[in-house]
């Protein structure tokens, strides 16, 4: 249990096991949105810590930005030499998945794209008598609102078709979903004695103002007491 829970607030883990790059990106996004965040290094990676009462706001913000960035598998990772002999069907499925991962990673690098998922639909038959079905590709993009528009869809379809020689342009489907940018909204503030402060500083500001008022009243009381003593002394004299 955290000490001084009512004053400072308890910190909880927002994300764990992040590498240095991902942790820096997440921390920077939170700080720029006015959400205090710290990094904590552990054995398995870096954890991001935020105040418990700001946990939901932090999650919503990072989801709108697609952070932490999704890690896509590379061809080298999927085709590493594990000493096992794979069947032709397994090799084909693995290669197909590797191509979809590389396409997803390429589309995710486009400015304004929060998340990209590519699925390649391709039937493989070992029988020469089966009629081949033309392959197709479906693309799901989550983009930031106002940054990337649907006018880019033809260019995305062309990119996918050119990266897969067997796929025709008309057999590439693209769905674009927009996400509101939470970071564009102003950070929340509260009014404390006519001063607008971040909610995380509300308790400290109230304590400071209370101390100032208490000090002022103490000084006034001491002044009044001294004045009374002087007045009584003059009367006695």
From TrEMBL:
Gene Ontology CC terms, in alphabetical order: cell outer membrane
InterPro entries reported for this sequence: AMP-bd_C_sf, FliF_N_dom, T3SS_SctJ, YscJ/FliF
Keywords: Cell outer membrane, Lipoprotein, Membrane, Palmitate, Signal, Transmembrane, Transmembrane helix
GO biological process per UniProt: protein secretion
Coiled coil region boundaries: none
Topological relation to the membrane, as annotated: Lipid-anchor
Broad class of the protein's primary localization: membrane
Annotated Gene3D superfamilies: 3.30.300.30, Hypothetical protein rpa1041
Record field: transmembrane: 207-229
Domain (Flagellar M-ring N-terminal): residue spans on this chain: 12-177
Compartment(s): Cell outer membrane
Any one Pfam family match given in the protein's UniProt record, by short name: YscJ_FliF
Signal peptide: none
PANTHER family in the cross-refs: FLAGELLAR M-RING PROTEIN, YOP PROTEINS TRANSLOCATION LIPOPROTEIN J
NCBIfam families the record matches: III_secr_YscJ
Family: Belongs to the YscJ lipoprotein family.
UniProt name for this protein: Lipoprotein
